[in-house]
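Anyone up for a design puzzle?
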């Protein structure tokens, strides 16, 4: 394969990102001013679209999200400080609203530590404070409703242009900004300005559909919108008041039955709650799922098209309560709306590549022509204390011959449609819908350039997985995967691959390479590959505590390896650790598999440790039941069938 200089790759990918934003902006007939308002200047956005400048994580994600595009299509870099700020905001999310005193202290610490904040950061802090004030008002009644409203409006004003109260349809807003508007709606309701509150709520609910958002972005705002709408309606109904657009009360809906309910206000609030829940299920997400299930749990069964749906809701609610109690996870929490499972820390990336190639810092700072920086400066960058300049970072990574830079789409394309199709194929494969996946792959082949390294890598990966599912020769499948990895990691033979900075697809490929070696009986090679991937993921997550896409698959393959060598003593604890990390992400679409792994391991360990049989039995029964319910939540029919066949073993 012809080698392409890293500089060319980085420029290409930055330009691809910028072109994707620009093309989508123009397709939606948005001006530079409208898309960039409140985030960056018109000139800055123009430079982003031309691929001239590097973007920050928060800014770049928000630009995409304002157009309803999932930022997960792109992998990117951030400085140690950017990720530390994200980590501290995440800590606040986990405290609000359940631990108000600790949350307030964390918000104050953030303000004290970071005096200079982006508007989006300040908006986040103000939103958290509004939620805490609303919670205090609910529990003690001491909070001033006008102060709550003023703070909520201030949060929106951080990034949203003037005039938003008169109408939002013409504005570009992200899920996080719509969250802020929802809080204004809640505050208006508390100030007895209920007609205004309902109008604003309805504007938020309708916004994603009006702007053709992708479902994976809708999921960031519609569940909490449904929760707020149902709660406001229940208060209004208790007081004998209806929303201005509501033609029928909840009691009327129940009296007339499900058929009549569909004629109510915008198909009725139960229908909106159902719509939000189905959105979460289709996308394998759990953000705001427990508050939503709480609300739906209170409705009468007759309000749904299928009366048995309420029983399903009760089952899902108990399942999530059990999961969150098991892992001491706050089911009632807030979400940032920005994820880092597709991001790498610039300093850690430099450190890992240097170690992979066996270089000292003294050698790494010299590019063959001149000194780029001092070894002391590189040390501080690797520790996340300093941020490298764009040009210096580029010069440092070029010497490692790493094909493909960062700040890039998952494939060499600036077509969001192609990236979306690739995501659909990935989802179909996750759901084990192999026939549909194969059909989509054939369509995908005609929409991409198969000579591009990352595209070729993707096609080879698809080929190997499908061949294996059809009973193909495992050794042949393994060779295809090794060829796929060479598309972006051409010199992995002889390298210490635990220090490689695995990109998203490389994680999946390397994990499957380890799995195929295991199935072929080469356990030494399986161990080497799987431990290398897991070590690399651990290193990448060192500063954020958030694990990157594919870590759960890598763990499951490693768990199978440990079973082969009969080393399962600590596998239950390992599985619990992986689920604990997974819960921090929006998507939990592998949870049913992970819980089954825990059930299987607990069952096997109990057979070898009869003195601990009772405690392990409690674990495997609970894990197996959760796996069954989660399979239903995820619409994973093949896993459901698999579990049904084994139910007598685990639950007899």
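Challenge accepted. My sequence:
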């Amino acid at each position: 394969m012809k080698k392409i200089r890293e500089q060319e790759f980085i420029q290409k990918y930055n330009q691809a990102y910028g072109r994707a934003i620009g093309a989508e902006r123009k397709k939606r007939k948005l001006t530079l001013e409208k898309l960039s308002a409140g985030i960056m200047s018109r000139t800055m956005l123009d430079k982003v679209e031309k691929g001239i400048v590097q973007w920050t994580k928060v800014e770049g994600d928000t630009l995409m999200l304002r157009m309803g595009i999932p930022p997960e299509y792109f992998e990117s870099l951030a400085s140690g400080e950017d990720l530390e700020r994200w980590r501290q905001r995440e800590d606040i999310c986990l405290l609000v609203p359940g631990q108000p005193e600790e949350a307030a202290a964390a918000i104050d610490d953030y303000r004290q530590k970071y005096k200079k904040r982006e508007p989006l950061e300040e908006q986040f802090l103000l939103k958290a404070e509004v939620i805490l004030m609303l919670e205090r008002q609910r529990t003690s009644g001491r909070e001033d409703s006008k102060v709550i409203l003023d703070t909520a409006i201030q949060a929106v004003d951080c990034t949203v242009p003037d005039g938003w109260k008169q109408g939002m349809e013409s504005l570009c807003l992200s899920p996080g900004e719509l969250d802020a508007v929802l809080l204004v709606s809640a505050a208006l309701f508390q100030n007895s300005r209920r007609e205004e509150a309902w109008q604003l709520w309805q504007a938020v609910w309708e916004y994603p559909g009006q702007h053709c958002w992708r479902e994976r972005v809708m999921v960031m705002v519609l569940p909490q919108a449904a929760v707020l709408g149902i709660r406001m309606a229940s208060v209004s109904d208790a007081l004998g008041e209806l929303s201005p657009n509501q033609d029928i009360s909840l009691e009327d809906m129940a009296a007339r039955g499900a058929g009549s309910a569909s004629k109510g206000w915008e198909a009725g609030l139960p229908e909106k709650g159902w719509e939000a829940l189905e959105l979460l299920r289709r996308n394998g997400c759990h953000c705001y799922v427990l508050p939503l299930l709480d609300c739906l749990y209170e409705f009468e069964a007759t309000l749904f098209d299928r009366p048995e749906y309420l029983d399903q809701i009760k089952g899902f609610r108990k399942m999530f309560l059990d999961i969150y109690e098991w892992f001491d996870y706050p089911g009632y929490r807030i979400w940032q709306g920005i994820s880092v499972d597709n991001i790498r820390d610039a300093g850690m990336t430099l450190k890992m590549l240097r170690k992979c190639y066996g270089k000292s810092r003294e050698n790494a700072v010299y590019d063959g022509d001149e000194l780029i920086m001092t070894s002391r400066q590189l040390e501080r960058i690797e520790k996340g204390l300093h941020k490298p300049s764009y040009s210096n970072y580029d010069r440092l990574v070029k010497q490692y011959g790493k094909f493909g830079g960062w700040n890039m789409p998952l494939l060499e394309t600036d077509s969001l449609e192609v990236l979306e199709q690739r995501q659909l194929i990935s989802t179909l494969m996750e759901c084990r819908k192999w026939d549909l996946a194969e059909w989509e792959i054939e369509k995908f082949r005609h929409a991409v350039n198969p000579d591009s390294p990352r595209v070729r890598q993707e096609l080879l990966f698809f080929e190997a997985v499908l061949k294996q599912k059809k009973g193909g020769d495992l050794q042949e499948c393994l060779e295809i995967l090794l060829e796929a990895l060479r598309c972006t990691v051409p010199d992995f033979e002889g390298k210490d691959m635990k220090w490689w900075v695995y990109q998203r697809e490389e994680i999946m490929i390397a994990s499957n390479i380890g799995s195929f070696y295991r199935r072929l009986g080469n356990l030494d090679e399986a161990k080497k590959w799987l431990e290398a991937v897991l070590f690399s993921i651990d290193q990448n997550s060192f500063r954020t505590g958030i694990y990157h896409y594919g870590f759960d698959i890598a763990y499951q393959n490693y768990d199978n390896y440990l079973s082969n060598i009969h080393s399962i003593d600590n596998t239950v604890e390992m599985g619990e650790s992986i689920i604990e990390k997974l819960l921090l992400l929006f998507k939990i679409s592998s949870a049913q598999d992970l819980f089954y792994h825990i059930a299987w391991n607990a069952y096997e360990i109990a057979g070898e440790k009869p003195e601990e049989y009772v405690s392990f039995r409690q674990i495997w029964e609970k894990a197996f039941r959760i796996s069954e319910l989660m399979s239903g939540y995820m619409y994973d029919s093949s896993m459901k069938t698999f579990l049904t066949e084994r139910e007598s073993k685990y639950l007899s």
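A detail worth pointing out: The longest strand covers residues 74-78.
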